[in-house]
Amino acid sequence: MKKFAKIDKDRLLLGIAAPVLAVVAALVVTALVLLATGKEPFKAFQIMVSYGFKSDSQVFILNEATTYYLAGLAVAIGFRMNLFNIGVDGQYRMGAFFGAVVGGMVTLPSFLEIPLIIVVSMVVAAAWSAIAGFLKVGRGVSEVIATIMLNSIATAVISYLLQPGRLAHLNSNTNSVYTTMLPKSAWFFTMTTNPAAGPIEGFIVIAVLAGVAYWFVLSRTRFGFDLRTVGQSESAAEASGVNVKKMIVTSMIISGALAGLVGMPALLNEAHTYSDEFPTGIGFIGIAVALLGRNHPVGIGIGALLWAFLDRTSNWLEFNGYDKEIVGVIQGVIVLCVVIAYEVVRRYGLGRQQRKVGEELAAAASLKTVEKAEVTA
Amino acid sequence: MELKGITKRFPGVVANHDIDITVRRGIVHALVGENGAGKSTLMKILYGMQKPDEGTIAVDGEQVSFSNPGDAIVRGIGMVHQHFMLADNLTVLENVVLGSEKLYGIGTKARAKITEISDAYGLNVRPDVLVEDLGVADRQRVEILKVLYRGARTLILDEPTAVLVPQEVDALFDNLRELKAEGLTVIFISHKLGEVLSVADEITVIRRGTTVGTADPKTITTKQLAELMVGSELPSPETRESTVTDVPMLQVDGLKLTAPDQDGVERTVLDDIALTIHKGEVLGIAGVEGNGQAELVEAIMGMRAPDAGVLTLDGRDISRTPTRKRREDGIGYIPEDRHRHGLLLEAPLWENRILGHVTEKPNSKGALLDPAAARRDTERIVAEYDVRTPGIDVTAASLSGGNQQKLIVGREMSHQPKLLIAAHPTRGVDVGAQAQIWDQIREARREGLAVLLISADLDELIGLSDCLRVMFRGRLVADADPATITPEELGSAMTGASSGHLEHAAAGAVTGTARDTAVSDTASDTAGGED
């Protein structure tokens, strides 16, 4: 049994190695970039760390990470299936928009109003994602292409509907358009730990629950096993009795449903309306976060926190005379490094394990022959 | 050519160590060893595809070091791979000149050279035919010509007979003798001992990654050679007493399947297949690969939807049931390509134990997995089926082919199948594991299992089966009694030369439309069979 524990520990170490390697490599590259622009790199890192750990920064980071985490989960479900759902972006915006519209139309007690908005958002986002799933299964359209197109269409649909006289109102002071404000009953709870730092959004609880559900479904249920099987080998999955086409559609729907949660913190905890200032582009951050977290629920959490940390500190860097874009460079470099480091570590791990197994078996075999020789002697 | 002390460490598979081989000019030198002994690795080293960790290679007394196949070609060493590397949509001429346009151009000069080589060695290659229109044997000749065209004086042939039927093997050997007569050297890799004895001038035996000796084909017998190769007494696939009952387990009736080929043209791949396998019966299907065997298996497994036909398993119509239900109902499946269809290579063994049986005990309870029980059962399979592994948490990819196969067999047998589909169950498996897998199939058959056996190893087919059918171009064209048929007769039927009921020529009565009963004596014995 000791032997197994050792192999597991190795695997854990290798699992951590990739993201650590990636972040370190990204820091080195960034330091070089900073040096090239004539700035002192370690000062910049120091500024980032000291500012990033202030308590108001911490709250900001947690709130930001909640959204990123949900986006990361939505993308990761696809990744586990070998599907690249680039469309989380369009899906969450469609979901949040229609959630906001429906929420603005009715006023119900909180325990009905909030679930109603969430369910509407998830259903709309899932339906939007399902289009890509059906196109892939029925017509062989790559989900990458389909979801990119659906993102553009989502943008167009929302800007068409988000106009005064259609589903939105004009705020004549700020000249922005927004959907009917949600009633107070649709406001999600917040938690305040330090009044100066602002409240932590309650949706973080939902995000954690979603992470637990993600882990449980994937690693503890038959359905999750089938899903992972398809992701690892479509041919083996088919031979094992999984209906691969059905699984593609199902997982696109689940990925989309999770994407439906992405816009909820912004809607229920922050803005309480869908306006033309509603955050966009989170789906793409989700891709980076899922890659960074290696599709593991805890890893995605760390990735989301790191991303939020970088977001937060970029503003402060600018304030200190650094170029804000440097953080963009770090983020980009991290994603690249993760992709490379992940593959390098994976190959190394596989080769290492094969070698180990070979060695152990050879050792066992030679031991046996020695024993035999002794017996015959 | 001389190889000394070649050592290659390689993850997961048998490493080459201390290999010493001397090959003289102008002879056919055979390299024999069981699957996984390290023959192919050695040849890749010789051909520059891999670098040895230790040891030296000398050609004509001069020490050389190859870092890619180009270096080997320059030294006059060429390789004919087991899997052909030809572009189907190009002509023979185009395939030959591809990549060597500098030698003789791509026009008349090249054509003349090809004809010249073809005539010189009796290869009968027609330069302007499309490769897709060629049969397997013709393609192989094109491969040989390709190598000669590049100026090779030493040819390495990696398992050249694996894809050929016995008659084609004879033709190949005639070509090899021509090459030898012209002073070329041939290194011939095989594990079919009869063939080796008939064509080789010298034999080197490889066992567990190292050279264990040389043999003179004039004096050694197949049996002695096999024992040298395996290092012990040989197993045989023979089944002794019959356990066939008259209770049908699987009935296939009027099965038809069409599928688009590479050009998108719909072709019939299964044509009116009808067969019945009874409880306790092993039905063997012989056929050159690509004649519809894979499609038949996939149709029975439910992985392909047939155009017509009825499948009945144990009295119940399963024609429309999905794959998972068929597996739950008792079809066990040992797939032809275990990496594609039988395993999740990067998943641990215990997850591979769940694969294909996720809805069954002990793998799950209701909708939830039961990892603890699955792991316990994996431990049991590893112990009972002698899967050599340090633990059940290693990935399937780190096991050798034979151990992967033992895991698959163990898994499929653990669910008390009523019908076992065994497609090439011992391909790429070492002799020890082979014997074990045969034992398990025999054992299960005694307990009433029905087996559909598909194999390219004719001795395995004849030895294990209770009843044989021959498949050719999607049809079951002939049947035979494994008790009397010889591999040569079966091989001839596999080329489509004979049909109906095949009977052993010695018995006199040749019925049906059997025309070709010319039995050559160049035995095609494999390691598994004895004379």
TrEMBL record, chain A:
Q: Pfam families, alphabetically?
A: BPD_transp_2
**Record localization:** Cell membrane
For this protein, the parts annotated as crossing the membrane are: 12-37, 57-79, 91-108, 114-135, 144-162, 196-218, 248-268, 326-345
Where does it mainly reside? membrane
* InterPro entries, per the entry: ABC_transp_permease (IPR001851)
Keyword vocabulary terms for this entry:
Cell membrane, Membrane, Transmembrane, Transmembrane helix
- What is this protein called in UniProt? ABC transporter permease
The organism is Streptantibioticus parmotrematis
